# Entry
Amino acid sequence: RREGKVRDVYTLGHGEGSPRLLVIATDRISAFDVVMPTPIPGKGVILNTIASWWLRWIEAKGLCRTHLLSTDEGEIPEEAFIGSTSREDLAGRVTIGRLCKVVPVECVVRGYLDGSGWEEYRASGRVCGVELPPGLERGSKLPEPIFTPATKAEQGAHDENIGFDEACAIAGAETMRTLRERSLAIYLAAAEHAESRGLILADTKFEFGFPLDARGEAEGDAILIDEALTPDSSRFWPGDRWKPGGAQESFDKQFVREHLLGLVSRGEWDKSPPGPDLPEEVVLGTLERYAEAARRLCVGG
# Structure
């Protein structure tokens, strides 16, 4: 068992000849790479719904193979249950996927300027070595989407933006060229779908891995793993209220980030663990935004 920031991960062993992974989406929420002590009730079910919808959509569009095998808690072996956890407790929270050797680079695509990209641009006029036009504001649409990789930090540490050459040194040039092309293609298609549903996909983060065979050895091409295009890994803005020049209204965890930045500005938190308790209005406001994202994005699902 491995406890991630917002997911619990278990190795299930072999199914169809290859090892599988069981991922449980919890109600935990993280910001600035710190897990908050206050859960968002129901968040895990909503995130799992969104992630599995997108993964199936991406495969159906022929954009990339994914790790997703099933979201049926009924496929979890009975011997996997210990303690007081029941199968019913996991309803809507389960992803069973192919076990993969993870590419140790996060594949970030930005179509708009915000977050760490905005901070880097403001300081240097570049983002991850990509030179951008002068005069852009926070929330500006970029001339074209850019690929801005980041390191995969251990829990409690911060991901760091890196240049493409550094990403190649970590994961291999051929692998990174393929993942850059794949990430941009998925982003463009997903942004078009989001736009059709009244949302702007400002930026997002993908992770890839090489599937393991029955001997535990990596085989074939890299596939899309983990979650994809959820409010935890992406910024979604309402298209009819987008206005460059500051923070945007959002259907993602930016609502939590803005609350926490207020604490930081008042000297009440320093972005290091443990995180502060979240007030009820932030919990309910975050849940409402995640639910609205699911309603808009998951057409027919």
Q: What stands out?
A: The chain has two domains: 2-100+256-297, 103-209+227-241. The two ends are 30 Å apart (CA to CA). The mean pLDDT is 93. The CA atoms of residues 232 and 253 lie 6 Å apart.
